[in-house]
Amino acid sequence: MSEQDTYPQGPRTTPTRLRERAGYAVDAVHAVLDEGLICHVGVVVDGEPVVLPTIHARVGRTLYLHTSTGSRLTRLAADGGVPVCVTVTLLDGLVLARSQFHHSMNYRSVVVRGRAELVTDPAEKSAALTAVVDHVVPGRADGSRPGDAKELAATAVLRIALEEASLKQRSGPPSDDDEDLALPYWAGVIPVALGFGPPRPATDLADGVVLPGHVAGYTRGTADFGSASPPRVE
């Protein structure tokens, strides 16, 4: 892979444990960021760590975070930017081994390190908010009203350049010790996927408004619950 295909590996993006599970491929990192609905933002406030859930969207090599103008994170970012750590984790399976020690989870988790800056340009802010809406439900931005002046005044967008990012993952069956294989305990994987029920229309929906395709066909992820075992990533 070329440097453009991978994020640089450095001290801040190298796990201290199970380094063989880490990866830096740009496409793989972006795929997790794009599939995840929620991210968690870690920041130090008044000398104390704080972790905040929020909505995000990736546009190229920029990660945008949705927040409010009155949040502590926004106030910190407005003062020249603030160092943050952003994580997105996708759970793919519960790994049940014969040994309790070897129980695990199949997952994909991305960690982004960088500096969050407040987006002040109106055009960039508008484009970022559109990207956030479409990140959650693709096509929804065209199927809804944009924010008005009052709503935009209460909404803030933070920008993080995607320069330091890493992916850590596990897949495949349990990894029991050889001496435990004959034990009379079931072992295997319970696949996990995010599920969505049928859309429920608002009770005050105007007459004649039909269910749009981007809502009717909504899905997320590429879960495959076939019988074949995926390749193992130890």
Give a short overview.
Helix content is 18%, strand content 32%. The chain has 234 residues and is of the alpha+beta class.
| Coarse structural class | alpha+beta
Main CATH class:
Mainly Beta
Number of domains: 1
β-sheet strand percentage: 25-35%
Give helix and strand order, one letter per element, not per position.
Answer: EHEEEEHEEHHEEEH
Q: What's the shape?
A: globular
If you consult CATH, what is the topology? Pnp Oxidase, Chain A
Radius of gyration: 21 Å
Question: What are the segments in which pLDDT stays under 50 over at least 5 consecutive residues?
Answer: none
CATH architecture: Roll
Arithmetic mean pLDDT: 91
Topology of helices and strands:
Blueprint: E1 22-23, H1 26-35, E2 39-45, E3 48-54, E4 56-59, E5 62-68, H2 72-78, E6 82-96, E7 104-118, H3 122-136, H4 149-153, E8 155-161, E9 164-170, E10 188-191, H5 213-216
Antiparallel strand pairs: 1-9, 2-3, 2-6, 4-5, 5-8, 6-7, 6-10, 7-8, 7-9
